Amino acid sequence: MRPVKVPEPQERPPMTRATDQPAPERPTADLGPTVADLFPDVTSDAARRLIISAVASFAERGYHATTTRHISEGAGLSSAAMYVHFPTKEQVLFEAGKVGHEGVLAAIREAVAEHTDPRDRMRELVRAFTLWHARHHTMCRVAQYELAALSPEHHAIIAEIRRQTEHFVREEIRRGVDSGAFVVPDVTTAALAVLSMGIDVARWYLPGRSVDAEQLADRYAELAASMLRTRPRS
Amino acid sequence: MRPVKVPEPQERPPMTRATDQPAPERPTADLGPTVADLFPDVTSDAARRLIISAVASFAERGYHATTTRHISEGAGLSSAAMYVHFPTKEQVLFEAGKVGHEGVLAAIREAVAEHTDPRDRMRELVRAFTLWHARHHTMCRVAQYELAALSPEHHAIIAEIRRQTEHFVREEIRRGVDSGAFVVPDVTTAALAVLSMGIDVARWYLPGRSVDAEQLADRYAELAASMLRTRPRS
Predict the structure, then answer these.
(1) CA distances from B131 to B111, B138, B160, B214 (A)
(2) Distance between CA B28 and CA B31 in Å, rounded?
(3) B91 in contact with A at a CB cutoff of 8 Å?
């Protein structure tokens, strides 16, 4: 658009590069204790390590400031090794986001499966949803906050998984309302609030900061039950 | 660390630059209708426009991929104009984050000021908190998600404002519990849940997507009242 290319001013003098300094509040590279369990379908150990390295770097530096070398070397591989397994950095972000979004949907489906009463199903749903976001908080932050960096095709795939998760929570609440177990002003808004409680855990959760993940999950299940004005069983 | 500098592989071919493509789900550059009201203390119109331009670019491209030229030209100024008003890009992020975090604290303090009953105060608090995050959703996303890019000194200032906000919400709930207005399993966890409901609005809110901001604020106030098991007035 501009006919003359003005040299880009130096933005970050070497001594004050903000991203070289540790984040004061949380160790962003902490992927949680169970991250390896997230990739049952990624059979190559190198590919798994590359995704884990990428997520740590995206969380620490941001997606755009992460280079393919960061990803490769963070996985203990040579600087261009990422290209052996993934065509682009965006593909790694997509794989990580897909695993994260599919994982939480599978977790809540599994959590409710053994129960029929809406009260029990919602308790287990909120517990599983909260636990997921606490345990995989770094992965979840990347999956949530770097969505805009995905290609439209990949974004559409992730958005569809998210819609399924939102739909699942909404339908659980709706069935509870229909059966008289819950009383809410509006099913859609109640579902948004339940989802937000859990998703936002990934933003603030730090292992050891306040409550542990299991305790948090129990308390959130209790708070959600109150929020949905859960009626006693008849 | 490495003795030989390997050329950085091309990461984003020109035709597939993800950030040049519109985000499928939301117009990230939308700063909300009242963004100009956020800067009563920034007396220079150019400085205000620079902050607004920076927030739009941070939301669209991410902090690290935003250049000082993006910021200056987005404000309708020449490419190096940012430096007339701000020493660094990080300073603009800090000013935006400070305005955002101070603004929401001021908003909830003002909202409760005219009320004494904990039920009324909490309703107005949740209303104001929800409205803030809906109206200023782009600013809030930047303020929340780009915190790690701040210098330690600036991060500490923002973290202190956040602590005051969290403390304020927690103490409102505690007073309500002490007076018998609310019944919660744990004040700290209940405060986290109330804060998360509101903060996460900035992540998903899109004007015109589902409910309008006022309606959402009313429903969230009602849901929070249920969550805190608000007792009838004696």
Answers:
(1) 11, 13, 22, 7
(2) 8
(3) no
**Residue of A64, A152, A184 lying closest to B62 (CB–CB):** A64
Distance CA B5, CA B49 (A): 40
Secondary structure class of B39 (helix, strand, coil) = coil
Amino acid at B89: K
User: Percentage of residues in chain A with pLDDT exceeding 90?
Assistant: 66
**Angstrom distance (rounded) from CA A117 to CA B110:** 43
The end-to-end CA distance of chain A, in Å, is 70
Question: Cβ contacts of residue B60 below 8 Å, gap of 6+?
Answer: A148, B19, B23, B28, B29
Q: A124 vs chain B: nearest CA distance in angstroms?
A: 17
Q: How confident is the model at residue A75 (pLDDT cuts 50, 70, 90)?
A: very high
Which candidate, A56, A96, A61, places its Cα nearest to that of A72? A56
SS3 B166: helix
Residue B199 token pair: 């903060």
Tell me the residue length of chain B: 234
Nearest by CB to residue B151, choosing from A2, A18, A185, is A18
A149 touches chain B (CB under 8 A): yes
**Rounded Cα gap, residues A189 and B200, in angstroms:** 13
Query: If you average pLDDT over residues A45-66, what whole number do you get?
Result: 89
What is the nearest CA distance from B223 to chain A, expressed in angstroms? 6
- Joined together, the tokens standing for residue A227 give 């929020």
Neighboring chain B residues of A185 at a CB cutoff of 8 Å: 219, 222-223
Which residue in B233, B169, B202, B182 sits closest to A223, CA to CA? B182
Q: Most A CBs within 10 Å: which of B57, B184, B223, as the mutation test of the A interface? A: B223
ipTM over 0.95: no
The answer to whether B52 and B75 have CB atoms below 8 angstroms apart is yes
Residue contact B90–A155, C-beta within 8 A:
no
- Domains in chain B: ranges and CATH: 89-227 (1.10.357.10)
Whole-prediction pTM: 0.83
